[in-house]
Amino acid sequence: MRLYVYVLQAKDLPLQTTYVKLQAGRLKSKTRTLANTLTPVWNEEFVFRVHDDVGAQQLVASVFHLQHDAAFFNASKCLIGRIAIPLSLVADQHNQTLPPTWFPLHNTKTGNFIAKDSGKILLTLSLHGKGHDHSINHLPHAQSDVYHEDDDEFERSCKLSQDMFSAKAPCLKITKGMVKTIAGRLDKIFHKNKEVSRMDDSPSDFSSTVSDHEEEHSSDCSFEEAIELMQLEHNQVDVPENLDGGVLVDQMYILAPCDLNKFLFAPDSKFSKDMAQLQGTTDVQEGPWTWKSEDVSCLTRVITYTKAATKLVKAVKATEEQTYVKASGHEFAILVTVSTPEVPYGSTFKIELLYKIMPGPEVPTGEESSHLIVSWRVNFQQSTMMRSMIEGGAKQGLKESFDQFSDLLAQNLKILDPMDLSDRDHMLSTLETEHQSDWELAVEYFANFTVVFTVFLVLYFMLHVLLCDSSKIQGLEIDGLDLPDSFGELLTSGILVILLQRVYNMVSHFIQARLQRGSDHGIKAQGDGWVLTVALMEGVNLASLNSSESLDPYVVFTCNGKTRTSSVKLQTHDPQWKGDFLKKTFSVNSSKDVCNLFRRQYYAEILEFDAMEEPPSVLDVEVFDFDGPFDQAASLGHCEINLLKHTPSELSDLWVSLEGKLAQPSQSKLHLRIFLDNNKGVEAIKEYLTKMEKEVGKKLNLRSPHKNSTFQKLFGLPPEEFLINDFTCQLKRKLPVQGRLFLSARIVGFYANLFGRKTKFFFLWGDIEDIQVLPPSLASVVSPSLVIVLGKGRGLDARHGAKSQDEEGRLRFHFQSFVSFNDACRTIMALWRTRTFTTDQRAEIAEEQQEQEETPVILEEVGSILDAEDIEMSKIYTAELPICITSLMEFFDGGELEHKIMGKSGCLNYAPASWEQVKHKSDVYERRVSYKFNRHVSIFGGEVSCTQQKCPTSNDEGWIVNEVMLLHDIPFSDHFRVKLRYQIEKSSLAQNACKCDAYIRIVWLKVKSTNFQLRITQNITDKFTHRVKEIFELLEREILFGSCNSTT
C-alpha cells in the first residue's frame, strides 16, 4: 500500500528559512528549503510504501529552521515543531483520503528555541492500495458533524482547496496525483485532536530518533519520470568543476543531452552491456535507481561487477555508486565512486569519476548536440606512502579503459567535428556587402577644399578670359607671350600653378592607388589542403613619419613564403577596407556569439592563400605607406601572429597590436579575422603522414580522435593540430626530468609530471635553427643526446625548459635517454627538414622520387674515385697569385692558417688529420678532414667528411691535391660524391708567384633521372665555384697582409 502526502503550506511560523521533513516508518524525505517567509508554500507531493495493516503506523511531519553559520561556513538546523498523524485516521476517511487540513505544530523539546505556539501546517493524506481508483470528479458538501475550530479557518481551508483548481501554485506546478486527490470527496474537515496531542507528548519523542542521515525512499516511477522530477529542484544547482586528476574524455556528439544521458545511464543500457563485454567484465549486478534525499533530492544506484584480470592485477570485485549531482533537463552531472578493496592498498583510496553532459554548439543542420566531459581523481581515505604509485597506476588503467569507452561511443554515435560546425553559405551571405564604385571613391577622395578651390579658380579665370579683350603688347611682351602686368597678377598666377600641381599629384596618386587596389583581393585559393583566409577589417591610430602628412596605408600578409597584398586606403590614419566578399570563409567555431559577430555586417577585404600541405604556423603582417609604384614604401608597423596560440574563436575576431618605432608609441592596431580551413579533411592528414613515412623510413599511424583531443588540450592547441609521434625521454637541465616528447606537424612539445610538479612547453619547427647529436657520455647516462638550438629571439615562451642560452641569445634544449634514439632522431630530423623546403620544392622532389629507378654503379669507394684520373673534370677557378708555392701549401698543412681560413669560409668544428704516406706510393700522401657547414653555406648544415691526397707534379715544380667530399644529412647525399682537384704550379709571370687551377666533378654512385642529376650538379658546381674563389681570396689576403703585420 502507498501513502501519498501533500505538503501544501504553513503559517504563523516563528522563524523563516524552513523546510518539512516527513517520516513514515523507516522511510524519510523532505521538502525544499524556502527562505525569507513566515508563510512558506511548498505544494510538494511525496509517496511512501506502508504495510497494509496501517493501524500501528503513523506519519511524523517536522518543520525545521535552517541556520547558516557564516563564521564556520556551515549550517545547522533547529526544530520548530512537529505533528504525528496516525494512519488509521486516514484509513477511516471516505476513499481513505484526508482532505486539506491545518495541523498545529508542537515543540516540547527545550533548547535553542521554545515557543508556546509553533504555527500550523496544511497537509493532505491519502492511502491507496494496488489497483485502487482514487479519482473523484466532484467536490461533496461538508458533513454536518464536522468539527472545526472556527468558521474563518474553515473558510480559509475550503478557499485554499478551491484555489488550487483555479490557479497555479506559487512555486511549483501541482502534480497530477495532487490534483486527483484534492478533487476527491471533501466530506469531513478534520482538526485538532486531543489524542494526537497526547501522542505527541508521549515519551517516545521523535526529535531524539530522527537521524541527520537521509535514507532512500522508493518510487515506482520510470527512469525518465525520475529525471523529470529532479529537474524541479536541480535547475538552480551549478554544474561542478572538473575533478583535479585530469580529463579522460572530452568529445562532442550529435545527440541531445537528455538522449545521451539515457544512452549511458538508463537501466539495462545496451551501451553498458557492450562496454562490459568489450572490457571482459563479469558478474555485473546493476541495482535500481533509487531516491536519495539530501539538501536536494537525487537519484543513486549501486553496481557491482568483477573486473577482468590484467598483467599486474588479478580479477577483482569492484563497486560503483552512481549519483546524480545535477539533472536539469539539458545539463547532467553524475558522480561515480569506485571502490576496489581487493587490489593492493585498495582500502586506502577510492576512484571518483565525474560525467558531465552539457549542450553542445549549434549544428547547421538544426540537430541538437551534446558535450561529454569525463574527469577523475583519487580520493584517499587515509595517508599512504604509495600515493604516487597508486595515482600512476590508476591513471594508466583509466586511460586504457576510457580509450575503449570513446571508441565504442564513436561506433554508436556520430561525433561532432568542430571543422564542420560552420555553414559556409550562411557566413558568406552575412558577410556580403555592396561594392563601392571608383566614382564613389573619387568623389570621396576629391571632395576637399584644395580641389574645390582650384576648380573654382580655373573656372573663374576661364570666365575672365572670355569676358576680356586682348590687351596691347607692352613691356617685354612679344606676340604670343602675355606676361603679368602687375605683382597681383603674378601672385595669382603662382597660386593657381601651385594648386594645379597639387591637384595633378592627387589625380596621379589616385590612379596609381586604384591600379594597386585589389591586386590580391578577389583571387581564389588554388589546390586542396589547408587554406588560410584573412579578412582585413580596419586599422586604428596608424602613425606616419611626418605627423602633418596624411597616410595611404596598405597591408602585406606573408605565410609560408607567399604574400598577399591589400588595397591602398587614401589619406587616412584609421583605414577601413571595403570590398566584395567573393570568398567562402568560415570559422571553426560556430557558437552563437561568433555567429552574432558575423551578423554585424562588417566591411572587410578578403585575402586567400593557396592550399598548403600542412597547417601554417605563423602569419606575418606589415603595414606600409604607399608613395608610388617605384618608391620604397615606408613601414608603419609589423607583427607576427602565432596561429597556435589562439583559439579559432579568437582568430575569428582578432585585434593585433603593431610593433615598430612608429606603431608602438601611437598604439597602432589592426582588426583581422583569420580562418584556417582543411578542405580535404582527414585525407589531408593521411597524405601528410604518407609523405613523412618516406622521409622517416617507418610507418606513421593516424592517431585516434581521443588521443588528438588529449594532445590538443594538454598544450592548448587548436583543433586542426594532429599528433604524429611521441617518445619517452629525459629533459636535461640542472636536474633531469623524465617525460614525453610530442611531435606534430607544427610543434615540438615536452610534458612531464613528477610528483605533481608539471613541466610543459612547446616551440615551433620554424623556431629551430640547428639540431645536433652529441655522442654518449657519463653525463648523458651513456646514451646519445639530441640538442635542439632555437633561433635568436625565438621560442621565448619555452625558455624555462632550456638547458642554457648561448652568447647570441639562442636557447638550447637537451633531450636524452630515448628508448630508441635512432627512431626519435630520424623522425625529428625528417620533420624539421620538411619545414625548411618550400611547397614547390617538396612537390618537385616527391614527383621525381616516384619516377626514378635507382641502380647501383661500380664507383662506390673513395679510393676508386681518387684513383680515377681519367674522369673528366670542369675548371671552376684559375688565378695567378702573388705568393710562392711554399706559402700557399701551408694552407694544406693543418696549421693555424688552415683553421683560420676555413673558419672564415663557414666551416664549423674543423678537424684535419695529419698527412700519412700511402702504401706502395712513395710520393703520395693522404689525410682525412671533417667539419660542418654553417647555415649560411647550407640550409641543412650537414656534416662533411673529406679524403685528401697530395702529390708533386711531373716536373716537381708544383703540387696536385685531390679531394673527395662525402656530404651527410642532406637529401640524396648517398647518391653522389664531390671530387675537387687543386693544381698549383710555379708562375711564368713572376719570380715569387704561383698559378692555381681548381676543378670539380660530381661522381654519381646511383643513377638518377637526367634532369635531376643536371639540376643537382649545377647547384653544387655554382656553390663551389663561389666558395673556392672566396677561400683563395681569403688565403691571399691572409698571407700578404698577415705577413706584413707580423713583420711590422
TrEMBL record:
<dbReference type="InterPro" id="IPR000008">
    <property type="entry name" value="C2_dom"/>
</dbReference>
<keyword id="KW-1133">Transmembrane helix</keyword>
<dbReference type="InterPro" id="IPR035892">
    <property type="entry name" value="C2_domain_sf"/>
</dbReference>
<feature type="domain" description="C2">
    <location>
        <begin position="1"/>
        <end position="103"/>
    </location>
</feature>
<dbReference type="Pfam" id="PF16016">
    <property type="entry name" value="VASt"/>
</dbReference>
<keyword id="KW-0812">Transmembrane</keyword>
<keyword id="KW-0472">Membrane</keyword>
<dbReference type="InterPro" id="IPR031968">
    <property type="entry name" value="VASt"/>
</dbReference>
<dbReference type="InterPro" id="IPR004182">
    <property type="entry name" value="GRAM"/>
</dbReference>
<protein>
    <recommendedName>
        <fullName>C2 and GRAM domain-containing protein</fullName>
    </recommendedName>
</protein>
<feature type="domain" description="VASt">
    <location>
        <begin position="244"/>
        <end position="417"/>
    </location>
</feature>
<dbReference type="Pfam" id="PF02893">
    <property type="entry name" value="GRAM"/>
</dbReference>
<dbReference type="Pfam" id="PF00168">
    <property type="entry name" value="C2"/>
</dbReference>
<dbReference type="InterPro" id="IPR011993">
    <property type="entry name" value="PH-like_dom_sf"/>
</dbReference>
<dbReference type="GO" id="GO:0016020">
    <property type="term" value="C:membrane"/>
</dbReference>
<dbReference type="InterPro" id="IPR044511">
    <property type="entry name" value="At1g03370/At5g50170-like"/>
</dbReference>
<feature type="domain" description="VASt">
    <location>
        <begin position="872"/>
        <end position="1039"/>
    </location>
</feature>
<feature type="domain" description="C2">
    <location>
        <begin position="511"/>
        <end position="656"/>
    </location>
</feature>
